[in-house]
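ugh ok so i messed up the first submission bc i forgot one of the chains. this is the corrected input, ALL of the components this time, i swear. 626 residues overall. if the numbers dont match what u have on ur side tell me asap before i send this to the collaborators (the ones from the other lab, u know who)
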Amino acid sequence: MKLDRLKLDRMNLKAWLGVISLILAFLIPIISGIDTYLLTVLILMLVFIMYASAWNLLALSGQGSLGHAAFFGIGGYTSAIIAKSLGLPPLATILVGGLFAAFIGVLIGLTCVRLREWFLGMVTFGFAVIAHTITAELSWLTGGWDGLPAKKIIPVSVQNYLMYEYYLMLLLTVVVVVIIWMIMKSRIGLAFEAIRENELEAKVMGINVTRYKLMAFAVSAFFTGVAGALQIHHFGYITPEVYAIDISFLPIIYCVSGGLFTIEGPILGTIFITLLDEGLKNFGWTYERYIVIGLILILVVRFLPKGFVSIPEKIKSRLKSHP
Amino acid sequence: MDIGVFIQILVWGLYAGCIYILLAIGLNLIFGVMKVVNFAHGEVLMLGAYAAFWIYTYSSINPYLIIPASMLLIAILGVFIERLGFRPIMGTGKLNEIFLSLGLIYLFQNLVAFLWSTNSRSIRSPYGEVVVPIGAIKLPLDYLIIIIFTIVFIIAFQLFMKKTTTGRAMRATSQNREAAALMGINVERMDMLSFALGSALAAAAGSLWLISGQMATPYMGSIPAIKAFAVVIIGGLGSIPGAIVAGMTLGIVENVVPLLMSSLVGILGFEMSFTAWKDTIAFFILIIVLVIRPTGIFGEKGE
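and heres the new structure output, hopefully the right one now
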């Protein structure tokens, strides 16, 4: 009984923290005014919160992808091409980009269902390299290495368009995170976890492992594609650089440092690492900041395997054992 | 297509295959003993190339004589990677190994870029101008030396594993860790040794690549390493003969296929280059192999 109360209190605390940080996020442009640099950093941070949360959902089912840039780029290119050729508004084509990424995700997932961790890592990585080459070679469609222009989400002609874009991104991020959170809490999320913990046991319990693994791929690829499309409609152009290895690795770094398999982990990790990265960049550091990020990743894996979100827990147990 | 060109590309493929084989044997050894995959193996190759470059710059002796020194240095680094990185997280899940490797990749690449810039470095081989005429075609002597070096390394490695007590102990550890420990084998020392040997082979690959005219940059290791992973998977985890066959095949196929494709398209009357597809061929093969056999072609005991 007491334990239940404690759990409830912690849930409440989390919810309150979420609401407070949302209010803060809402107030930032009002407090700081329309600061182009700040808003750009925040918009990209929101895009990567969606992206990292989507990667985390796939990892929840035990499938650690090393090539999520494939979905990020496919979502972006699909959206940019359709917006250009059919003249649709980006907000509609973003969904098409996500859906096409989900479709490719199921195809890639089909090759991955029987694979173990690092085989799967290699295959997904390979698909990102293949997607990169195909995109660069299909220059009549994709513009090759020069890339394509992409419509802005909010036209530049609108006054303070960056602020509207920020609020739009904030809204979409909340929607995406809440949907992913609901999936994680539902039976589907439980099935994912069961598969990750022990695939054979999950199968014995009557879980259709293949179907759930493909579902994880589809949903994760969908939101990754949406995030990719949002990013390129923010930039206003897309080049094959969206398939860069870094784009595949960043969500992993964010999720691992924040806390894998939790809803708040990817959010915290993205905020912390992007702010750190941005701060070090302003400090004039170039390679050093990647050294720092690499070291953080190594140290987290070694000493804090549950990520930053487990720090309060760690401190509490430390206090308990050394009163 | 000219048959001479074809043979020259074949030799180029053989030469690339040697690099993949040296990397793949090291990966296989480490996986066999520790059941761990170091995704940062390509960065170990890169550090080996840089070690060779700096030793050469300060000593300017024949670059081929530098290789053992570079291997020794990187073997020591391998021990550190094992002790400080992989040993503490052993048994905490395969995903953690991948994450740790990612951290190592970021660390090594950017440390090198920070210390020595991203400028590409090269060594002038003393035999750079020498070619060996075989029939109508001319082969660079450096390529032949590398192929011979690789053969020597493979034979020495196999002799070590089969004939020496330490080598036997390592094989025993990879077959059954608990039983080996009960027989009095210090399995933790075998872990260390496997990382040292595997890293030394990667350093040899990096040094050989640099000497034969490739450029050393902080990012040089990622593509060959990824292909070496593909070779390991295709050849079967833990299988050395598999790695040799797969490495040779990949080296040749990825160089011959783009050529065949463009001459095929040429027959149909189009002009198209397929060189951009070179780096994707390894993955196409990998994906096809894994769809058919999720444990690789020769893999019996795939994890």
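quick check: Strands of chain A lie at 148-149, 237-238. that seems consistent at least. Chain A has 14 helices and two strands.
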